[in-house]
From TrEMBL:
Natural source organism: Magnaporthiopsis poae (strain ATCC 64411 / 73-15) (Kentucky bluegrass fungus)
Name of this chain's protein: amidase
Pfam families: Amidase, Lipase_3
Residues annotated as domain Amidase: 387-611
Spans annotated as Disordered: 1-26, 615-640
Amino acid sequence: MLFNHPTKSPQKLSIHPTNATATTSATGPQHETILCVYCSSDRRGRQLRCKLVSSEEFSDLLLFAKYAGAAYCAPNQKIGDPVFCKGEICPGRNATILATFAGRITDIQGFLAEDPENKILTVSIRGSHTIQNFITDIIFRAEAVDREFCAGCRVHAGFLYAYKEIVARLPPILFSYRHTSPELWLGSGPPNKNGYLPGDVLECLGSANVKCNAGRRKNAASCNNSWGTSVIAHLHYLVPISYCGSWKSMLDMSLQNGTDDLNSTDPELAERLDMFAKLDLEYAEALEEDGSVPEDDTMQVLQTKPVPTGTPEFEAKLAALLQQFADGVPQNLRLPEDVFTNPPPVDVTAIPASCGLLSATELEITEQHDATALADAIARRRYTAVEVATAFCKRAIIAHQLTACLAEWFMNDAVAQARRLDEHLERHGTTVGPLHGVPVSIKGHILMAGTFYHGGSLSSLQKSETDSQLVAILRGLGAVFFCKTAQPQTLMHLESDSARGRVLNPYNVHLSAGGSSGGEAALVAMKGSVLGVGTDIGGSVRGPAAFCGIYGFKATSYLLPMRGFTPSPFAAELNVLCSLGPMCRSLRDMDLFMRVVLATKPHLQDPNLVPIPWSALSQTTGSSSPSHPSDAPSSGRGGA
């Protein structure tokens, strides 16, 4: 439901949720639009959720919504085709499809298109949460997209979020073979939740998708619930601006054909799940026999010993996680097949320079500078932050294929961060801080917004919504985050072995990189990172640093900020306390890290910290890296 209302001050607007009326005490006429969306709360009433938006924002809403429905109105479009909506190019002129995508054996389809007239990139996905996310969150924001073919383009933030979102699914959908009829949806819980009960499942007939996927959920408490939108709100909102047809006819069809199975007994629903799982397995076997199943596109990662396997359910989850990682790595950054088919050299540290995937400038950036030198080179504009981020992102993913050192890799986000820093330097003539443009890698369990927290196991995997205190500090100092590194299962090991594989020592892949910060150590040794952050109780920074020939030390406990390092508070510590520490290529980089972090006075945010002055490490003038593990000290003098 939409209201146009002249108002000058959004703060003076009063919305009455029961009857959707609006009053204002504004003194000046500035045209604003009040967007109201009905949401179901329970069987006794409804809630009204409203947001005041500008006319420009509302215009963007209509534009994005038209594009959003295009994949439903005209599926199976090809690269180079114009974007159609029911026979007409929609909504601008010369909108052209640049890329298409589809589920591996599902009917999920979509495309990326460029609208040069409106200067936007649009993503339209059929068979996803795209529209639902847009309605429930009422997101009015467009984000810049880094594409050479569309400089300055933007994409709607809600669609971008929905595209990246991992949707929790229950077997048989978990096997990624096909959609079932009825479809089975999980209505609550994070994407990595395990242990669903039959009563948690929302069961929908394929012909009743509008009824089910629009958000009817028993006892939905509020609009913030992921299934909180009502059918009426969905259809009123979506259909009139997507040109897919009459919303009333779709609603009538849904009500006639749909069935409400929310009251199914647990045994009945469990029996249906088993039946559809068997059907999906039979279907997958038939596809494999006739060659319809595409080849596995999982990126190869070197392992010198077999990785232990788990139950079929566990392996299915792991395979999905590894495939998600692989899907984000372009083919032009994957090592050639012969690296894995022929026995690799014991020492793989030279392969990044010889594999041909890095340019001469990228080799110079990653091999001839420590963090201190890089920060200076970027500030002097010898390199841009984008050049540096790109070089280290590429080298990091090469290092991962040889040592299994990464848990996550997000090159696009890193380049976007770096571009904003370049724009700041160009606009203001100054850096944002002493680490402006310096790539920093982070150990896997440290919370960073938009990435996964995990303790080395799949059961602990969960998406982080906020930065830990240290990550926030480093971000404010100008650091560019581009990856999170591997660690052992449950963390407390001087080894880095998990279900993803064992982190290999770059100087001898038949030996361990150490732990628990083994991923960081291997990555820095491979020159895939110039500065990393590890954690240490009984040697988890010092051990891997010694094993891999890099610099690293455990700082004095309660000196550096560790608030937000895990989703829940640390377990009780008795005699040996946890601390974090830098992992890098030079002694002066350890001093740089300690100096700039402590200069932000983290003790003012965390009263557990002791404000001990940093007295600096000795011999901090050199910038060269150790050439071999035996050349590198693994610890330095502490902070007191």
